[in-house]
């Protein structure tokens, strides 16, 4: 099967923008999109998170499939809808987990793309309760796409300035993360490694080592130029957000270490702090181990 991207949008307001953005990412390599619609899973969230405003989202099964199929026909790349199947709840991991896992098994995507609406409460709950267990089990990279700004005009484009934030601790990438090298290399983007040193200790030496670690990870094709951006005396999350603004990055890449992102303390990690405030798409790459 040709490589693909699996797109999951949890809200109608996010679905169209997320699919168009994923199409822009995959277009240079001619990747297919598989659209997995998530509206019908809002009932899995806590009732207070859904609230009365979610009532209009209730749709028949036919309507639920019709909207993403119409959306797929309008995309500039080949796309199909991954039609949800009814799965048994008894003994299962939960409807969304089962169906995302089934879609991953069917399409073998390079990347899982998640869209979020303007309000992050439901998205955060969906991420915590349904998606994280799937990602932990499969080790697939995930791209989190924020809602499009109201003033955005025109079709989304592939990123032009990508910031790769690392903490100076050596790392290796999981096999699924290394498989993204061709995709990242197809965007004709400028790549910058951001090293955040909270205590300003040996900043130059550790920053150069961070860039060498990114090069050694084989995340990018060998000839890709790598600029270096250094932030000293800042907390990790604040430093990363500062680096995004200073470099005018339009995508952030974070290394998701098992002990932080996949653990039960996810909501207290640097990764989570960045996700709550990051204005650009965030690509989370599972590290080895």
TrEMBL record:
SUPFAM superfamilies assigned: Adenine nucleotide alpha hydrolases-like
Family from the record: Belongs to the universal stress protein A family.
Species this protein is from: Hymenobacter nivis
Name by which UniProt lists this protein: UspA domain-containing protein
Domain UspA intervals: 160-285
Entry superkingdom: Bacteria
């Amino acid at each position: 099967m040709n490589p693909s991207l699996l797109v999951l949008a949890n809200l109608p307001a996010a679905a169209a923008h997320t699919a168009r953005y994923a199409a822009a990412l995959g277009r240079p390599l001619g990747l297919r999109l598989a659209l997995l619609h998530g509206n019908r899973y809002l009932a899995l969230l806590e009732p207070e998170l859904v609230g009365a405003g979610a009532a209009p989202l209730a749709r028949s099964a036919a309507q639920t499939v019709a909207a993403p199929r119409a959306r797929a026909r309008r995309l500039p790349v080949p796309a199909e809808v991954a039609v949800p199947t009814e799965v048994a709840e008894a003994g299962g991991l939960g409807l969304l987990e089962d169906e995302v896992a089934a879609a991953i098994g069917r399409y073998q995507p390079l990347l899982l793309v998640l869209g979020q609406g303007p309000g992050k409460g439901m998205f955060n709950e969906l991420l915590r309760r349904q998606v994280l267990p799937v990602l932990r089990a499969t080790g697939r990279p995930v791209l989190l796409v924020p809602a499009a700004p109201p003033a955005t005009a025109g079709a989304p484009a592939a990123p032009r300035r990508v910031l790769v934030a690392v903490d100076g601790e050596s790392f290796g990438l999981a096999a699924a993360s290394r498989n993204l090298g061709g995709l990242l290399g197809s965007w004709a983007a400028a790549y910058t490694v951001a090293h955040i040193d909270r205590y300003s200790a040996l900043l130059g030496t550790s920053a150069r080592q961070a860039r060498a670690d990114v090069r050694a990870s084989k995340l990018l094709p060998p000839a890709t130029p790598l600029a270096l951006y250094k932030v000293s005396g800042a907390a990790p999350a604040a430093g990363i957000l500062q680096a995004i603004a200073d470099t005018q990055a339009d995508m952030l890449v974070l290394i998701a270490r098992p002990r932080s992102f996949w653990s039960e303390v996810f909501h207290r990690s640097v990764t989570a702090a960045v996700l709550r405030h990051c204005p650009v798409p965030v690509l989370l790459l599972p590290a080895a181990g």
